[in-house]
Amino acid sequence: MALRRAELPSRFGPELLLRLDQALGSAPEVLTPERPVEVVEAAWPFESPVTDGQILETVISRLLEDMLEQLRPQQLGVQRCCSL
Predict the structure, then answer these.
(1) How far apart are the first and last CA of the chain?
(2) Do 50 and 77 have their domain in common?
(3) I want to staple 63 with a disulfide (CB 3.0 to 4.6 A). Which of 25, 40, 42, 74 is the partner?
C-alpha cells in the first residue's frame, strides 16, 4: 500500500490493481457460490441379521445400481462407497 499505484502493474502484473481494489471494496467482484453436493444414498432395511453372503452380494449390487441411476442424469459416477 506504500507503493505508488502506477508502479504496481509493472512489478506485479496488470491484474494487481483490480484485485487490490476488489479486496478493499472499491471495485465490485462477482462471487459464484459453491453449491453443496447432494448426498447419494441407497438403503435396504433387513428385519433380522443376514449372514448369507449371496443375499448380501445381490442386495449390494442392487443398491449400487440405484445409486448409479441417481447419478446418471448428471453424468457422474462413484469414486468411493462407504457403509454406516
Answers:
(1) 52
(2) yes
(3) 42
